[in-house]
Amino acid sequence: MIIDYDYILKRIDFLINESRKDQQLITFYGKTKSSLSVWIRKTFFPFYRPIRPYFIGMKQLKQYEKEIQLPFLHPIALNFMEYFFVENQRPHFDTSIYFEENDDNNIIDFIDNRIKCIIAGLKRTVITAIQKEDIRNKEYIDSKIEKGKDDFYYLKLKGENEYILPVKSFTTDVFIHHYGLKELTEEQKIYIENKDFLDIGAFCGDTSLVFLNYNPHKIYAYEPVKSTYDVLIKTIQKNKINKIDPINKGMGEKNDVMKIYSNVESAACSSIVYNQSTSNSQQKIIEEQIEIDTIDRECNDKKIGLIKMDIEGFEYYAIKGGLKTIQRDKPILLISIYHTAKDFFEIPPMIRNVCPEYKFKYMDIYPSNPIADKIIIGYT
User: What predicted TM-score, i.e. pTM, was given to this entire model?
Assistant: First the structure.
């Protein structure tokens, strides 16, 4: 399957026409008289400039019995369309080169949901069986969480160690899907045993706790935001773990000091990717200076078996700073690719350029959320 500029135009036209057939297309301009040309002229560009979101984050989507509401003009969807129509990028991305053939339908959904977020009226998607299962899994996890007198939250799942967190953050992408690690073959699981893991974007330590099930030599948990790093320390101390080494740094393509921006309501969405020119956001944002290093500098004396990365749109640059390590150790990669179009289209070719053996699998680790938590699993 080829994804390029023409493909995006055809999908826009297709989705608008399909919506017309179902009599679901309602726009701010009344009935749409033409599809693609009117959409580009009236829907995308007038909205883009005044409300360009400067913070890439995600609020929990409201669940319906049969439909999931897609947020209109979601910042992640805007970034995706900006890549084609504003930055004027012309990718020619052949999914057969990088992904397994059975990933195509999921990738189509990945792209379509971004388009639907931009086209007025196309804001809902029917809940599939896998999404229903994810909702049930979330309900199951919620039923197992207990709050202790020490104000920590406790989760015990069948066949796993008890997980203790200082914040109530037990999501299905981590505690059901193990951030993609459950998809590995037994041979791949053996391959990463007793090697060092990098948890880049460690947040409160939830993924690091889950990764302990896979027998790492050491987990290096990178969390650049000081307040969140302090929560990570509490997690490690409360769980009495000596295999997790917390590091208060971010990862990028070079050693640097940069600003990071955090939503005070959700430290999980802290991002270096931030447009300061936007002044009309209602979100309260705080900023701080953080140290940035590279994977290659940090891993000179380590044998890396796994790199997990979820850093809110800065993944491309962190991978760029770790290509020597990836080429040397050929670790399993769990890379978030949903924040920006650049990550989706440019990370797989960049990795294959230095290590042609790599193959990739697209995985939706949060099916009930049509926009967020989509990753690629890289392996050799």
Answer: 0.86
